[in-house]
What we know:
With 297 residues, the chain is an alpha/beta fold. The chain has one domain (19-257): Spore Coat Polysaccharide Biosynthesis Protein SpsA, Chain A, CATH 3.90.550.10. The protein is built from nine helices and twelve strands. The chain has helices at 16-26, 51-56, 77-84, 98-108, 128-136, 158-175, 194-197, 206-216, 240-255; strands at 10-11, 38-44, 65-70, 89-92, 113-116, 141-145, 152-153, 187-190, 221-225, 227-228, 271-273, 279-282. It has a ten-stranded mixed β-sheet with strand order 1-9-6-8-5-2-3-4-11-12, sandwiched between helices. β11 and β12 (279-282) form a beta hairpin. The longest helix has 18 residues, at 158-175.
Amino acid sequence: MLERPPGPVTKVGAMDATRTEQTQNDQITRPPRTRARISVVIPTLNEAANLPHVFARLPLEELFEIILVDGHSTDDTIKMARELCPSVRVLLQDGKGKGNALACGFAAARGDIIVMLDADGSTDPREIPDYVDALFDGADFAKGSRFMEGGGSTDITPLRMTGNRFLNGTVNALFGTRYSDLCYGYNAFWSDVRPKINVDCAGFEVETLINIRAAKAGLSVTEVPSVEHERIHGVSKLHPVRDGLRVLRTILSERFARRGGAEATRVRLVRELDNNGAVGGPLAPPATPAIDMPSSA
Length: 297
């Protein structure tokens, strides 16, 4: 497998003056690293065969909770997740698509830091500390990039590469950003910025939406080099042309959206499965779960 060589992080956020003013006005207090709680949100749809690879690479000792948001899988995705990590929180998304799944996971997350991670093995959980480092170095949002020094991909096709380059350039031109990658799903952010990005889309345009809204809100964005690997099992649910058009529509919609509209979010009544598979009521106030792997025989 392709290993990621060490590479620098790059600060690429726009409107830093605005971000500083907002931070001062909001008087945000964030915990030190020794006390920070990290939530990992993993959207799934029939990913049972891939989860052992993903969970085996999670830095469990650094995590507060793992949230699996399932799109009503027909395989053993949920059963496998519970076998791999009995304390995993399992949510049923309230709609369809990756964007909706992430929105449900973000709403339920109880940590100070939220990490977005794919379930197909393409994003390496061992990179999570790099994203957390970027946040503790001052970023509000740590954005993965396959196309900066130290990054790479063994999965992206020429068509997707061309589309990403065009869409990335369009965003940089319209929003004054200096992003090197746009359509990549490995990101992390402080949970207090959730209202700023307010995910309200359904599909694979979600990464673009988040990146644009982070810039429009004046958040401090740092790019982190990341290596994308090939999906281990199964077939990708991404359709380059169809989803590329959705991304383009999102870019244009955000360009002409009224200022401040991103924070007008609806309350999600996310429901969680208990260990018996029963659907509970709307989530209760946060509790502190433990991340425990099953003991070896």
